Amino acid sequence: MIRLIITINPDLCDGCGICVSACHEGAIGIVDGKAKLLRDDYCDGLGDCLSACPTNAITFETRDALEFNAAEVKKNLENQKISSQNTNLPCGCPSTNTKTIQHPDEPTSTNVASVPSYLNQ
What we know:
Shape: elongated
CATH architecture of the domain at 2-84: 2-Layer Sandwich
Radius of gyration: 25 Å
Number of helices: 2
Distance between the termini: 68 Å
Order of helices and strands: EHEEEH
Strand content: 15-25%
CATH class of the domain at 2-84: Alpha Beta
Helix content: 10-25%
């Protein structure tokens, strides 16, 4: 099908990723440090990413491309939402990771002298 769709010039792209956030369909991703149109059928051709690109690497072209598939886009966005909920924060700070501290079983003896110390410092 001949239709209007975006094209990304890799020579002008600096890989900032702003277009990825601007694309509400998830059609653009960063591959090898550059923005790339991942799937033709995810691109609706409206160009929300066009004005977001600071280097003007994104333009329109009319070419043979798969027809926009709203059902696949919806499914993909739901999958991305689920996977993003199952990951740690992107900053990588150790304090953002969930930790579980396992203590040995509590002593059953009431004799204070036989209770081992739990201090670990």
